[in-house]
Specification:
heterodimer, A: 550 residues, alpha/beta, Methane Monooxygenase Hydroxylase, Chain G, domain 1, 5-stranded antiparallel beta sheet, 17% strand, B: 73 residues, alpha+beta, Alpha-Beta Plaits, two-stranded antiparallel ribbon, globular
Chain lengths: 550, 73
């Protein structure tokens, strides 16, 4: 380590994906100093490159709020936070207009009209029009970077943030290092926004290896409250070259999914269920491999074989968008820690929750929470004094940041990641769950946390980033296992073989967690009574999607 | 073999791919001023570098294999 830099700013935004860019731009527009920092390069980082759909709610297009809410309430199995769902719907059009004003182009049809895709014309969704507007994939995030720079945001790329600095509980900045120079960076900020994305485990089948739950982990270590780590997303991938599944599957649609016995699997039984657990249930029943059979009239370029083998669990433990995250204490994206705000997938708005029952919601949610977090952080920053850094706390975090570099012997991040993946990735741990298996896995993950993580070594700066990512992933693994054990029922994409049905009287609640005396403490946060489904209705009506045996 | 090759003849040393890679696989060779594949194990086959490279110098192939699991670190 060569130099040490101190950067002072009013608002610091950690993570430069879609939410982070919105937060930075909106905060800057309030006239405060804004610094946006990313461990990669803003415009290429996080998930910001991938979405090409944006869900816009607009009454002028004939959308009815009640219909949209009903779709999500039922799809999310009543655990979506309706306050947030409604906010995101209502503000999505304004954020869409922001994107247009920044220069993002949305797809038009041959008549020059906005291309709007009507989602799932079945049952309750009949009246819904989810307007999907597709832009050029990679251009959009680059445009947000340019807009941030144009607004006067200071962007600092390729700096890995390790931990939050605090003063009497208030978050007053962060510590990190440059992955190029190795210089140490201390950011002093009046307000901090975490928009560092979701947590996954460098999965085999989706290009999200940089989503290592850094934001969740640093918030946890600073004693923030988090939630919702039991709802794991179920994207699929291509079995032959799983790591290449994303481009392969994107090319392959549309088609139909067949199991090994040739039966067609209905992906959307009854109503639109984008990502429920059906592939995992087929795996458990021994009916793999699944085949994605591309429609015969498909004119997809470069497709040699119409029958693509498919496997599930490709995102390797990532949660349903915003089902998990840092607990927002209000609709301003504030957290339980003063001075800390959360946005995008780092903010547990529970916009859809138990199942991802939509398309384009994550992008809309990121732009809305990004905006709200940016505005709140700017407001807080303009009302508070410059913080003073506690030298003892700083010295401790500097040591933590550099430790893996200075240790003489121990375990390489590459190996610990491999061990963690081998423990977590089989479908029967985080998808088809059972209390016994969760407990056994938790024992192993705790061993990783207590014995391997404290001895991680890094031989260069690339590995120093990996070492911190590894530490964060292990912590996020523990959150998932404990939350999954805690929820003793099945719901959405959380399925417990030992509790195979929804349990409304006991589990219309969120699972929250925080650190207490060195342990992970979990508890229930009940949803408001008025959001309960009508319990006088039969179970089958409340839950149109069946679990095996139901 | 994930990211397989950066063609030295075609690479113009612009460094765009270094920033394109979300997982820090590519670095610049300071002496030759060319991009090199420094950490291929971390390639996640996202193809952003391939798309962004102005001279089409980068080859990525679909195969990714895991190293043998050994019992210590």
């Amino acid at each position: 380590m060569s130099k040490e830099h101190v950067v002072e700013t009013d608002v610091l935004v950690i993570g430069g994906g879609l939410a982070g860019c919105f937060a930075a731009i909106k905060a800057k527009e309030q006239g405060v100093d804004v610094t946006l920092v990313d461990k990669g390069y803003v415009s290429k980082s996080g998930s910001s490159i991938w979405p090409h759909t944006y869900s816009v709610f607009n009454p002028e297009w004939g959308h009815k709020l009640d219909d949209w809410m009903d779709h999500i309430n039922t799809g999310g199995e009543y655990l979506n936070n309706r306050v947030w769902t409604e906010i995101i719907f209502k503000e999505s059009y304004a954020r869409y207009q922001d994107l247009v004003s920044y220069g993002v182009e949305f797809r038009k049809d041959e008549n020059g009209k906005l291309y709007r895709w009507k989602m799932a014309p079945q049952r309750a969704c009949e009246s819904l029009e989810f307007h999907i507007v597709a832009g050029e994939r990679r251009a959009k995030s680059l445009i947000l970077r340019k807009q941030a720079l144009k607004s006067g945001v200071k962007i600092m790329d390729r700096i890995m943030i390790t931990d939050l600095l605090q003063q009497d509980g208030r978050v007053i900045g962060v510590v990190g290092f440059s992955i190029d120079s190795g210089d140490l960076y201390i950011f002093k900020a009046k307000a901090t926004v975490i928009s560092a994305g979701a947590a996954a485990f460098k999965p085999s089948g989706w290009p999200i290896s940089e989503l290592t739950g850094d934001g969740m982990a640093m918030a946890y270590r600073a004693n923030a409250e988090l939630l919702g780590c039991e709802f794991i997303d179920t994207h699929n991938t291509w079995a032959e070259n799983p790591a290449y599944g994303f481009p392969a599957i994107m090319r392959a649609s549309p088609g139909r999914l067949l199991n090994a016995e040739g039966e067609e699997l209905k992906l959307y039984p009854g109503r639109l269920r984008s990502y429920s657990l059906n592939v995992e249930f087929e795996a458990h029943a021994g009916r793999l491999p699944l085949i994605w059979e591309v429609d015969a009239d498909s004119k997809v370029a470069g497709l040699k074989d119409r029958r693509l083998p498919v496997v599930g669990g490709s995102v390797g433990g990532m949660a349903v968008h915003t089902a998990e995250g840092i607990w927002p204490i209000n609709t301003k994206c504030g957290t339980t820690l003063p001075g800390l705000y959360a946005a995008g997938d780092s903010c547990g708005t529970r916009q859809v929750c138990a199942v991802y029952s939509g398309v384009g919601f994550a992008f809309a949610g990121a732009s809305v929470t990004g905006t709200r977090a940016g505005l709140s952080a700017a407001e807080y920053a303009s009302q508070t004094e410059k913080p003073t850094i506690d030298e003892k706390d700083l010295a401790r975090l500097k040591k933590v940041t550099l430790e893996p570099f200075e240790r003489k012997g121990g375990f390489s991040p590459k190996w610990v990641i491999q061990v963690l993946q081998n423990i977590l990735f089989p479908y029967y741990i985080l998808y088809i769950k059972h209390g016994d298996r969760l407990k056994a896995t938790l024992t192993l993950v705790e061993f990783l946390k207590d014995h391997l993580v404290p001895k991680l070594i890094a031989k260069d700066l690339h590995e120093l980033r990996l070492a911190h990512e590894t530490k964060n992933m292990v912590l996020n693994a523990e959150m998932r296992l404990r939350s999954s054990l805690f929820r003793t029922e099945s719901r959405g994409c959380h399925y417990r073989e030992d509790y195979p049905r929804r349990d409304d009287p006991n589990w219309l609640a969120w699972v929250k967690l925080k650190e207490e005396k060195g342990k992970m403490k979990l508890w229930k946060e009940p949803i408001p009574n008025e959001w309960w489904p009508d319990l006088s209705k039969p179970y089958e009506e409340r839950y149109p999607v069946r679990f095996p045996g139901e | 073999m994930t990211i397989e090759r950066i063609d030295n003849e075609l690479c113009n040393g612009c460094g765009i791919c270094v920033n394109s890679c979300p997982t820090d696989v590519i670095r610049m060779d300071k002496e030759n001023k060319k991009a090199i594949i420094k950490y291929p194990d971390d390639c996640m086959l996202c193809l952003i570098c391939v798309v962004d490279c102005p001279t089409k110098a980068i080859t990525v192939t679909p195969e990714k294999t895991s190293p043998l699991m050994v019992s210590w670190g």
